[in-house]
User: Fold this.
Amino acid sequence: MTDNIKQLIQRAIEEKKISPRKAIAILDKMKINEITDNEQKFAICREYLFNCIQLSDYKKAEIYLDNIRNLLPSLKDRNSHLYYQKVRGIIDIETANYSDGIEHLQKALEIAQDTQNSQLIFNETINVGLVFYSLKRYDKALEFFLDAKKIAVKNDLDQEILLTNLISVYNDLGEVNNALEIADTLIEVAKKTDNLIRKTTYYSNLGATYTIAKEFLKAMETYSKALKIAEEAGLDNRIYYLKFQLATTIRMSGNPEKALPLLKDALVEAKDFKKEYDEEKILREMALCSEMIKDYKSTCNYLKEAEKINKKINDEQTRDKIAQVQAQLEMNQRLNEKDQLMLIYSRQAEMGQMISAIAHQWRQPLNALSVILDSILDDWEFDELDEKTLEKKIESSKELIYSMNNTISDFRSFFKEESQFHNFDISDVIKKAIRFTDYRFKVHNIDFKFSGLRSCIMTGSSNQLLQVLLIILNNAFDAITGRKVKEPVIELSQKICDDACVIKISDNAGGIPKGIIEEIFDLHFTTKSDESNSGIGLYLSKIIVEIKFSGSITVKNTSQGAEFTINIPILK
Assistant:
């Protein structure tokens, strides 16, 4: 991006905390149609969208969303596709197109799950929860919010946005004690933030909590703060709902006559913004106020209008879509649990070989340490131990201990669960795989050749990629020893080709029979006669490479034996 455009976007990002209208005025200074860089266009459209949604200007939002949709083919970053699905879903929900909105937000969640990015999964889990909240499925919304809380705790994520959603759903479920537990934290957050949009939401939710707790004076004071902030920020689309909330508190405090004028204003404004689910809430509140002042005709009319809106929101198509989303999420959860169990099982199968590797790699330094200690004792007995000699032998001992410690660190890291994906150098993973298997090859006189190791940054779980390499190397070892190859060779090479890292592992064990080579990656398929062998190693390797790293793994026969090729896109 040019410096000027960068500065304007940054100014707009800062300004939107105070006033979305002022942020849009800054964005209007950039002539988007004259910008040729698609990344710049995406960044500008994204900021426009945020502010348009905050102001409920969905017609204008649609224009910029269409721009983003047209840009998607040229944007390689999957986050841009996730963003489009998310915003498309939000706009659909806000404009009462519930069925399509659910579908788009579900797609956004699936993309987030594929990326394995905990922050993205956290965000999209909250968004799906908000859909159910909008449809008054508060119990289902709470499930998603609590799932998001687990993700946040596990990955040490900021829970500020989650707290305000949790307090909302607890309020609507009437769980005032749970809401009050969050309220104290939310008060402190509201005091500290300079984001007027968030501050409005926080005070609004706090007011709802105090109302349910029947602390009406506190509630009215808090709603008044929220109303003042919303007016200051120009959040017209929030003002009507704050009027509704304030009116509800006034009615509950025993003054329905004072509440009705506020509710009538709120209803007109809600219709202007086409907020049907809010219209229904306001109409039902108006019915309660009318009943309290014994205006039963108005009560009946308000309830009829509310029921019509309710039927539209909860039509059959929307209910079917909700059922599909729930079924898909449950299926994904079961599949994830199954894959995780297989990963653990496969890793445990490697444990015996890892322990053997440690025993072998420790034997030599332990013998060397024993020799050093004996030599120190001999020098002492013969009065030949001077300070220089002692320092030299202590330094040698430390080097040996350091080497042994590295071996243990490698072993521990292999079995340690990684809670979050990270960037890592693939050459480090390859070197670790070599250290784990090198001793077995030496013992069986296998010539292990490796070449072309280059620094290559990946994103994901380094342990999972290490597991893939160990599975293939150990399979090659088993093929060679099982067929008693006379001059056994295993080769590992790495190269960078077309923005991808390519790893090849080959052997000279004669290859895989043509009749079964197509099935080699199938679940439970194995060529080994050992009954304890599960046949899940190569299946897991394929799952890890293709799903976790968005790469590919293939196998072919050469003139000497089998050759596996792993192709993984490089992180830019």
Remarks:
- Strands lie at 422-425, 447-451, 457-460, 489-496, 500-507, 552-557, 562-569.
